[in-house]
Amino acid sequence: MYYSTPKKLLIVGGADFSEDLFKEVYDNEIPIIAADGGANFLTEKNISPELVIGDLDSVSEQQIQNIEPEKIIRISEQDSTDLEKVLFNTQSPLTIGIGFLGSQIDHELAALSALVKFSHKKIIFIGEHDIVFLVPPSFSLRSFNGMRISLYPLDEVKVHSDGLQWATDGLTMKPTGQIGTSNKAIGKSIYLAPDKPKLLLILPKTVLNEAVSQLELAQSW
After folding, report:
1. Which of 2, 17, 18, 93 is buried most deeply by CB count within 10 Å?
2. 3-state secondary structure at position 61
3. Cα separation values, 122 from 57, 104, 169, Å
4. 135-163 in b/e burial notation, b at 16+ Cβ within 10 A?
5. Mean local confidence (pLDDT), 59-87
């Protein structure tokens, strides 16, 4: 492991995201790790990451000159993505990721797959409009009537729920069968308790702060 912190950790990937999104999540008290091409954005903003981790095929030669050599961790093997390389080599109570959603579909699917592969970690990805994370064993969240609640299984999973317009109790969800996208909250809170670490929760970005707070409090798998 190359980096461990008792604080939240921000990982910046190479997918497109707006400066407004970065400003929304950036906190100079939170350490930043660049996943390969994410270093391009950071160095352009004169932000020095704690480390740059990846196979480094997406970092421009010009930008890499601006990073101290001891901060560059090249991992050449091609059996894992750059995001997975970062997750495998870092430790934090909560990992926040931007630059992993909304660009290439294959990269986005790989990022979502990593949420299940690293189910023992608390990870939340932030896009321009939505956030997504793996549902912990027990998770509650303040909501408002009509709020979009999307559940997406990456494998067969059952989930007890409260506060949803369409209840999930008694259902077996799986990618090729029953899914739970575009459900809605019907009150001031929702509660989810999946039986396996296989279920993604997709929410509007407007509830980011509440979701982060509740994810920090939740039990890990």
Report:
1. 17
2. helix
3. 27, 24, 25
4. bbeebbbbbeeebebbbbbbeebbbebeb
5. 87
Q: So what's the pLDDT on residue 1?
A: 76
* Cα separations in angstroms, 9 against 97, 131, 173: 8, 16, 31
139 vs 16, which has greater pLDDT?
Answer: 139
CATH of the domain at 186: 2.60.120.320
Report the mean per-residue pLDDT for the chain.
94
The strands making up 139-142's β-sheet, listed across from edge to edge, are: 139-142, 189-194, 159-162
* Contact indicator for 53, 35 with CB cutoff of 8 Å: yes
Contact (CB, 8 A) for 101 and 15: yes
Final residue in a domain of this structure, among 95, 128, 161: 128
Percent helix / strand / coil, the chain, rounded to 5:
25, 30, 45
Range of the domain at 193: 139-204
Question: Mean of the pLDDT values across residues 98-108?
Answer: 92
Dig out the tokens for 89 from the structure: 């080599």
Is the pLDDT at 58 greater than 90? The verdict is: no
Q: Is the distance from CB of 2 to CB of 53 less than 8 angstroms? A: yes
Report whether pLDDT(57) > 90: no
Going by C-alpha positions, the residue among 174, 191, 30, 168 that lies closest to residue 96 is 30
Q: Closest Cα to residue 32, out of 63, 59, 53, 60?
A: 53
